[in-house]
Design brief:
Structural class of chain A: mainly alpha
Structural class of chain B: alpha/beta
Helix content of chain A: 40-55%
CATH architecture of the largest domain in chain B: 2-Layer Sandwich
Number of domains of chain B: 2
Order of helices and strands of chain A: HEHHHEEHH
CATH superfamily of chain A: ATPase, nucleotide binding domain
Distance between the termini of chain A: 43 Å
Number of helices of chain A: 6
Largest sheet of chain A: 3 strands, mixed
Radius of gyration of chain B: 20 Å
Distance between the termini of chain B: 19 Å
CATH topology of chain A: Nucleotidyltransferase, domain 5
Oligomer: heterodimer
């Protein structure tokens, strides 16, 4: 049921977006559970998603990585979350009186 | 001649069907309803069968059409608790007419039956087992229309309708996913309150809102009234608004907010069900108002260009009751059907009666 619901939401938002460029898996399950990713991407050819099955299983999950097959129209990524880092940048930006954390980072 | 009933609280809608012609009417469901129907129906001696639409079959009635027997009556009574307002009316009308005309066949049409075979993955709510055992699950509705749309699509496009999303556009818009004619998922849940907002129903909301309302002092009866009769497009626009007003177009002053939400929600479910089906062969729209729906369908399909859904540039809903809207050579078939619940019921009733009288 978990995977089924995920697929429904992916489909919903693909329709709302009018097509898909990038599919990102994140947080613990998204980054570390290859089986959930494999099941979610199964039969998603209709919106251009093709997973590289081997890369999906092999990926370490320590850093951002691409998992799409060479003939996939959509890029499939894992993005490990680093909320602490985001909070840190935002905090520094606030202290420096800057509105945009991106300005601090660069 | 057939006599057909459809509960629509506080009204009872009814119809005399004779030689392909529909003569429909409605009356308040008060003390006078029986007299009103008798007066309007004419010669009751010509009635060869009476049909009743049951909006919610509960967990026992799983046939879309069945002959009324004493056992059916007890099943209908049991189903009243699932959608009391509607089902209670069906129950009373059924009880009355089986007594009035005991010699002829009485048939029951169950609008949830088509979805009784929903896969568990689509039909189950993630709630404790004791609730699920009491029949808390997704039942869907408008099954008669979706099943009919599937048959129309098959005759319009030949065999190629395996993965179909069926969209009913009306005061209670809802969407169903069908694979090879079997129901796979649908927007309506335990009752028709779930799903896409309707004329007066809220559609999908977070269940804790009910808790919030109750905490603020509303009774459950008031909350039910609020979410099923005072919400939806009526609440968004602050006035009564029928589907045909909404479909008429953004030109109609002040309905853009509700219209945009309708389009957005239909798109979301088309996407969700395409994902569940693993692609799409047929996108079928059914409505009582085909002409008024053309611009709405155009907008929905325009945003599904990526699938790719391609409409024929000159598609229109003129003449007949079934239209192929897709462009020549398009991979995904798009169709529009003019649905009339009376005609669907009459067609089913006639085939059932003929079956029983070889």
């Amino acid at each position: 049921m978990y995977v089924y619901r995920l697929k429904k939401y992916v489909g919903s938002y693909v329709a709302v977006l009018g097509g898909l460029d990038v599919l990102v898996f994140t947080d613990d399950i998204g980054v570390h559970n290859w089986l959930v990713r494999e099941k979610v991407c199964e039969g998603m050819d209709w919106c251009g998603v093709r997973l590289d099955a081997e890369a999906n299983k092999r990926v370490s999950g320590d850093e951002i990585a691409r998992l799409d097959a060479p003939d996939s129209k959509v890029r499939v990524l894992i993005v490990p979350t680093e909320e602490e880092l985001v909070i840190c940048w935002e905090g520094i930006a606030l202290m420096k009186g800057k509105k945009d954390a991106a300005a601090v980072r660069s | 001649m057939l006599l057909l009933f459809d509960p629509d609280p506080p009204y009872l809608r009814w119809c005399v069907f004779e030689q392909g012609a529909v003569r429909s009417s409605r009356c308040a469901f008060g003390a006078e309803w029986l007299q009103t129907v008798k007066k309007g129906a004419g010669n009751l001696g010509r009635v060869k069968a009476v049909g009743y639409l049951l909006r919610h079959g509960g967990d026992r009635i799983k046939e879309p059409i069945l002959r009324v027997t004493p056992q059916t009556l007890s099943e209908v009574e049991d189903a009243v608790r699932f959608l009391p307002e509607f089902n209670d009316m069906t129950c009373k009308v059924l009880d009355r007419w089986t007594n009035e005309l005991p010699e002829i066949p009485h048939v029951l049409f169950c609008d949830t039956a088509f979805f009784s075979g929903l896969p568990d993955v689509a039909g189950t709510y993630a709630v404790p087992e004791e609730l699920r055992e009491k029949g808390v699950r997704r039942y869907g509705s408008y099954g008669l229309v979706h099943q009919w749309a599937w048959e129309k699509a098959r005759s319009l496009f030949g065999g190629n309708v395996g993965k179909m999303v069926s969209v009913y556009l009306g005061d209670h818009t809802n969407v169903a996913a069908l694979r090879d004619g079997k129901s796979l998922d649908t927007t309506i849940g335990f009752t028709p309150v779930e799903g896409i907002p309707s004329r007066t129903g809220c559609g999908d909301i977070d269940a804790t809102i009910v808790f919030e309302l109750h905490s603020s002092g509303m009774s459950f009866r008031e909350i039910n009234e609020l979410l099923s009769r005072k919400s939806g497009f009526k609440a968004l626009l602050g006035r009564r608004c029928s589907y045909s007003d909404l479909a008429a177009g953004p030109a109609t002053v002040g309905n853009a907010a509700a219209r945009d939400i309708l389009i957005y929600d239909v798109l979301k479910y088309i996407g969700a069900f395409t994902a569940v089906l693993g692609g799409l062969d047929t996108l079928a729209f059914a409505t009582r108002h085909p002409d008024e729906s053309m611009s709405l369908i155009g907008e929905i399909c325009g945003r599904l260009d990526f699938l790719p859904v391609k409409l024929h540039p000159h598609s229109s809903a003129a003449g007949g009751d079934a239209w192929n809207l897709s462009d020549n050579g398009a991979r995904i078939n798009v169709s529009l059907f003019k649905s009339d619940i009376w005609k669907i019921m009459a067609h089913l009733a006639e085939s059932l009666i003929e079956e029983k009288q070889p």
